[in-house]
């Protein structure tokens, strides 16, 4: 019975039903209540940066070398010294347990099976020990300082004991961005204890009975299992917005974080060459050019747009990763051509998770990998290591240096 349900899920995301990430997005929209789908899909304010992240990939065009045979294209690379099958990392995505039962474990398992890195968000519903055990590949832990310094130190200790291989410190979340879809869908009212306030918004759950049954079977509204408040236990879901506001990470915090975590640190949320230099000075091993997928400050430039400036400033001293708008393997190729070591993808796999759990995440990874192999072959390039600026044309005004 269980096996056949799994089989049905896997079939539901195979070709020709699901050919690309946009198809997974539509499948997630069908299965999830509006508030959960919009939480994944939406961005801050006018969602300008969200759109720009994707549009920037369209502004970069390829310069293929034709009549070249590359029967085997090599996608392998290393990220912070770890060998991976593909230069693709699953980005930290909070609250995955709203999307699918035990969502973070499910996503980590799919990443491990594909030989890629999974990054667990601080704001997750599964215990970091369980997530690390679920993946047979490398797992990174993304740190927010919600709950305060002692809470973060305890999580760092747990991450070390669980075998986490790098700490990702996200620096673009001084407050939660203004995600207007969440407001309209009643996020605040649904988290309030008041029955009357919730009532106008409950219909979105009743119209998705399969999601609702799975959500209730998974224990209902998750708690933040890795933010353990001394004397109180795991942080409640309703407390997260206020907690984020009281927990801004500053460059000074990097000093004690570096002491507590002796492994590699990756700083996520770099928008400018100046901050990239600060990340190098703070002793980071890697950085992620990221605007949080357009979910924080709207009207910042697309990440691909600022990548060349950042690579020119620090590319010889630190590993540069990029996220934002990765929906196709050709997007990965373009980021690599512009100097990224690898990319992170958030929504691409979150749609898969929301659509069909493990099968959906696995399908998202498979789509991006197959796209990347095909792109390399069509470019006449034998490996990801050989992608460089000569394979693309970029708009002239992107080059500041
Ligand atoms: C639903 C959702 C939740 C997210 N939660 C976190 C988080 O907890 N911590 C974090 O550093 N980034 C978080 N992000 C941002 C992602 O790590 C990543 O920067 C972004 O998704 C990249 O853009 P993309 O979705 O277009 O790939 C989240 C993104 C999404 C879509």
Describe it.
The protein is 46% helix and 14% strand. The protein has 401 residues and is of the alpha/beta class. It has a single domain (2-391), classed as Aldolase class I (TIM Barrel), CATH 3.20.20. An eight-stranded parallel β-barrel has the order 4-5-6-7-10-11-12-13, surrounded by seven helices. α6 runs parallel beside α19 (347-379) and α18 packs across α19 (347-379). It is globular and about 65 Å long. Flavin mononucleotide (FMN) binds next to α3 and α19.
Write the layout of secondary structure elements.
Elements (H helix, E strand, L loop, with lengths): L1 H11 L8 H11 L2 H8 L6 H12 L1 E2 L14 E3 L2 E3 L3 E3 L5 H4 L3 H11 L3 E5 L6 H7 L4 E5 L5 H13 L4 E5 L9 H5 L2 H5 L3 H4 L4 H4 L2 H9 L6 E6 L3 E3 L4 H6 L5 H10 L4 E6 L2 H9 L4 E4 L13 H12 L4 E5 L5 H9 L4 E4 L1 H33 L12 E2 L8
Parallel strand pairs: 4-5, 4-13, 5-6, 6-7, 7-10, 10-11, 11-12, 12-13
Antiparallel strand pairs: 1-14, 2-3, 8-9
Helix pairs in contact: 1-19, 2-19, 6-7, 6-19, 16-17, 18-19
Bound molecules: flavin mononucleotide.
Flavin mononucleotide binds next to helix 3 and helix 19.
């Amino acid at each position: 019975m269980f096996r056949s349900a799994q089989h049905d899920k896997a079939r539901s995301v195979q070709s020709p039903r699901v050919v690309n990430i946009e198809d997974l997005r539509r499948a997630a929209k069908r299965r999830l209540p509006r508030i959960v789908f919009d939480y994944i899909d939406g961005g801050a304010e006018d969602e300008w940066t969200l759109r720009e992240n994707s549009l920037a990939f369209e502004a970069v065009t390829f310069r293929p070398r034709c009549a070249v045979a590359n029967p085997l294209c090599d996608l392998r690379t290393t990220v912070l010294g770890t060998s991976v099958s593909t230069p693709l990392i699953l980005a930290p995505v909070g609250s995955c347990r709203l999307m699918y039962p035990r969502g973070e474990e499910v996503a980590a398992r799919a990443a491990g099976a594909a030989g890629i890195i999974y990054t667990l968000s601080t704001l997750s519903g599964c215990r970091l020990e369980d997530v690390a055990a679920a993946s047979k590949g490398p797992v990174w832990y993304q740190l927010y300082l919600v709950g305060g310094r002692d809470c973060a130190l305890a999580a760092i200790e747990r991450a070390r004991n669980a075998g986490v291989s790098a700490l990702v410190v996200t620096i673009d979340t001084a407050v939660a961005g203004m995600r207007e879809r969440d407001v309209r869908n009643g996020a605040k009212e649904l988290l309030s204890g008041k029955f009357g306030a919730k009532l106008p918004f409950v219909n979105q759950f009743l119209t998705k009975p399969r999601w609702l049954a799975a959500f209730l079977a998974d224990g209902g509204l998750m708690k933040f299992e890795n933010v353990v408040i001394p004397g109180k236990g795991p942080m409640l879901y309703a407390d997260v917005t206020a907690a984020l506001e009281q927990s801004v990470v500053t460059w000074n915090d990097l000093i004690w974080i570096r002491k507590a975590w002796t492994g590699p640190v990756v700083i996520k949320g770099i928008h400018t060459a100046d901050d990239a230099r600060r990340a190098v000075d703070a002793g980071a091993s890697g950085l992620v050019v990221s605007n949080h997928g357009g979910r924080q400050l709207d009207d910042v430039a697309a990440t691909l747009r600022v990548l060349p400036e950042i690579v020119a400033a620090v590319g010889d001293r630190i590993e540069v990763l990029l996220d934002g708008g990765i929906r196709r393997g050709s997007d990965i190729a373009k980021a690599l051509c512009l100097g990224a070591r690898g990319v992170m993808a958030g929504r691409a796999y979150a749609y898969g998770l929301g659509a069909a759990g493990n099968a959906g995440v696995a399908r998202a990874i498979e789509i991006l990998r197959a796209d990347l192999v095909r792109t390399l072959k069509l470019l006449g390039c034998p490996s990801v290591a050989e992608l460089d600026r000569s394979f693309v044309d970029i708009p002239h005004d992107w080059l500041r240096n």
